[in-house]
Amino acid sequence: MSILQSWAILRPQRLVGVVLGVSVFLGGCEPPPDITETSTEDSADTVIEDQQLTLQNATLENSTEDGQPLWKINAKKTVYSENQQNADLEKVTGNLFSEGELAVQFQADRGKIIQDGEKLLLRDNIIATDPRNGVSLRCEELDWFPDEGRLVVRQNVQGSHEQVELSAQQGQYWSQEQRLEVTGEIIATARQSPLQLKTEKLIWYVPEQKLESPEPLQADRYEEISVAGQTETEKKISDRILADQGEMNLETQVLILTDNVKSTSQDPPLQIASNSIIWTLIERTVSSNEPVQLYHLEENVLVSGNRGFVNLDQKIARLQDGVRGLSQNEEADLYAQKILWNIDAQRLEAEGNVIYQQVDPPMNVTGARAVGQLNKKTITVTRTGQNRRVMTRVIPQD
Asked: CA 74, CA 51: separation in Å to the nearest integer?
């Protein structure tokens, strides 16, 4: 039997092998023993079943019925199974296509073609890169499903991009949508903003430059600080944000967080709580159009409103609609339509239907405007009406 005849018999129906400078070996293809006329048919069947096709330095391709490429593989060694539907690969490189377009370039130590190319398995030291967007994945296991345009990655998954570095236990990448979903002990670090995300599920919409977590997450904003006697800087967490779900725009560096949101800052020592907040990393501002509470961790002052905005670098907060300020042990209580709070100086400026109450000495004052410090119970209330202006000063007794 010639090599050409053997290849014609053993070549899979869907796999197309393009052999460039290839050596072909047929296991058990030595000259067969003498065969009698009565046993010729049985002996021929046995020889074909035992034959194993091995290709060296081969290029293999698979395409759709209309000729669109699905994948193209270069392997240092390719060994086909007896039924010619599967093949084991060594030292593999190649391209994966999505609707005829190059979607992923890869390399791996080992691989396996399953069911005439319906599935491609890669194993050990895998690097897979989407040349369209620069996303690169490293892992130990990768399964490619050509009909779905889907990659499944497992074991020590590491993703890198000019905008994000991430690690996870496993994930899936949809080549047509350019969408990566990872799960399990995820750490994602933004490379162009001072932020690190931790969650159990993360969806990365690469063309839209958006990260989304539908599960509880922790977001840490950090600052680079200089250390005496050292040339390198250290990262110090300036703000920590917890939420049941959230998303981040990698281009604008804005976080949108929803459900049980809590942000804790070191300077100023402030805790912000709401069901929905927008966190701007560059300006370090927090805003909410839903009820929001601000709590000063050292002065024990709580200020709340139905809407709010905080500039943490400037240490200024503005709250509107049904605003309340409450001091330590509820000794001083202030209501107004809006409040401007200088967090560092602990100075409040309240306007609109102001009501101020305190316990000791007992006091209840109403007015149009109030200025002062709740933590020290020193408040000045201004009241207007009937073309007259009355100022009431509330001073606590020693």
From this structure: 23
At 345 the pLDDT is: 94
The dihedrals phi and psi of 386, each to the nearest 5 degrees, come to: 50, 45
**Are the C-beta atoms of residues 395 and 380 closer than 8 Å to each other?**
no
Question: Is the pTM higher than 0.70?
Answer: yes
DSSP secondary-structure letter at 159?
A: E
Give me 339's structure tokens: 């409040």
Distance CA 331, CA 376 (A): 10
DSSP string, 340-378: EEETTTTEEEEEEEEEEEETTTTEEEEEEEEEEETTTTE
* Closest C-alpha among 267, 343, 333, 336 to residue 309: 343
- State the number of CA atoms in the 13 A half-sphere of 364 facing the CB: 0
What is the DSSP secondary-structure string of 207-222? TTTEEEESS-EEEEEE
pLDDT in tens, 243-287: 999 999 999 999 999 999 999 999 999 999 999 999 999 999 999
At a CB cut-off of 8 Å and minimum separation 6, what does 34 contact?
Answer: none
Q: And the tokens for 7?
A: 């290849």
Nearest to 388 by CA among 360, 361, 368: 368
Quick one: CA dihedral 97, 102, 104, 107, positive or negative?
positive
Residue 358 exposed, middle or buried by CB count within 10 Å (0-12, 13-18, 19+): buried
* End-to-end Cα distance, the chain: 112
Token pair for 344: 């560092």
Tell me the CA distances in angstroms from 107 to 61, 262, 290, 362, one per residue in order.
Answer: 16, 43, 50, 77
